[in-house]
Amino acid sequence: MSEVFFYHLQGRPLEKALPQLLEKCLERGWRCVVQASSQERVDALDQVLWTYDDASFLPHGTDRQPEPARQPILLTTDESNPNSAVVRFLLEQSSIPDAGAYTRVIHLFDGDEPAQIEHARAQWRAARAAGHEVAYWQQTAEGRWQQR
Fold first, then answer.
1. What b/e readout covers 59-84, taking b as 16+ CB neighbours within 10 angstroms?
2. What is the SS3 assignment for 65-125?
3. What residues make up the domain containing 140?
4. Which CATH number goes with the domain that contains 129?
5. Secondary structure percentages of the chain, helix, strand, coil, to 5
6. Per-residue model confidence as pLDDT tens digits over 86-145
7. What is the Cα 83 distance to its own chain's centre?
8. How many domains does the chain have?
9. Nearest to 29, CA basis, from 86, 104, 82
10. Which residues sit opposite 5 in a β-bridge?
11. Burial of 18 (0-12, 13-18, 19+ CB in 10 A)
12. Of 3, 32, 97, 111, which has the highest C-beta tally within 10 A?
């Protein structure tokens, strides 16, 4: 079974939280795919991952660029996994039919968006019913993650 983690964004936007989580995955040698809800969001995240830190960047690409299979981090709007990722990030209200295809699935949702909260709750129930290990993480005021 997979680990299915839920990250409740509060106080810090996705654009600040996602790069930190992706860095942790790359440190472990994990390939990632990030599924956004729109192509506009993919384009915005593409820019963020190149510029979020003056001293570094996260190696990545989008599924519209050549050779997506070579990307350690792939940004997409669909359910495919062309880079053989073991970690799948689901943003906003994105979902996939089978979390079991990954070592870890990470749902990131905005605590100020009721529709995203309800979607995350439904995904939590589905993950537990499927027998996956689930965990809930909430952002502190300082932007750190605390497991609840």
1. ebbbbeeeebeebbbbbbbeeebebe
2. CCCHHHCCEEEECCCCCCCCCCEEEEECCCCCCCHHHCCEEEEEEECCCHHHHHHHHHHHH
3. 3-147
4. 3.40.50.10110
5. 35, 30, 40
6. 999 999 999 998 899 999 999 999 999 999 999 999 999 999 999 999 999 998 888 789
7. 15
8. 1
9. 86
10. 106, 135
11. buried
12. 32
Q: How far apart (Å, rounded) are the C-alpha atoms in residues 106 and 46? A: 19
User: Which residues touch 101 (CB under 8 Å, ≥6 apart)?
Assistant: 2, 81, 88
Report the predicted TM-score, pTM, of the whole model to 2 decimal places: 0.95
**Those residues with Cβ within 8 angstroms of residue 80's Cβ, 6 or more apart along the chain or in another chain:** 63
